[in-house]
Write a structure and sequence with these properties.
191 residues, alpha/beta, five-stranded parallel beta sheet, 5 strands, 15% strand
Length: 191
Amino acid sequence: MIAEAETQSWIQNYLACQRGVLAALPSESIGQVIETIRGAGANGRNIFIIGNGGNAANASHFATDLGKGASDRTPHRFRIFSLNDNTPWMTAVGNDYSYEDVFVRQLMNYAQTGDVLIASSVSGDSPNLVKAMEWAGAQGLETVALVGARRGRLAQTARRVVVVEDTHYGRVEDAQMTILHLVCYAFMDTL
């Protein structure tokens, strides 16, 4: 019975911390990201999203929701690509060049000035994300970083930054998925 009480206490504490993280999300910054995505969609621009680990899964989820659900509710179709989802290309680049290049090499083939790159990271310092973000900025892409409280190099490089003010990986990744859902549902719920 003691273990169950401790588990319940831990759960309640975790949820309280998560509520605090969500309550502190910067709505103005999220609104700017929504407008960036709105403009990209209306102008037929490509939207690319990248991340590692849990954020790679979030990237795939976002691409599905924006590409299917949000596109079904707007007068245009979103051209969204999760660069995490091309496993053969990523492994070839990682093997033949470097893991740092797995995203930038895909962008070199597909991205054009005016497209959008979103990178999602808890630390903000993943070398493969930073390299892609730096390249994208130099090529005239709109750049967006979703980062945790450490911010990292992504926050220094991206044009738009949304900071989740926590360093706990689970809480930050959950909040980042909430931000990505907000972007999608801005189109699905408001039109």
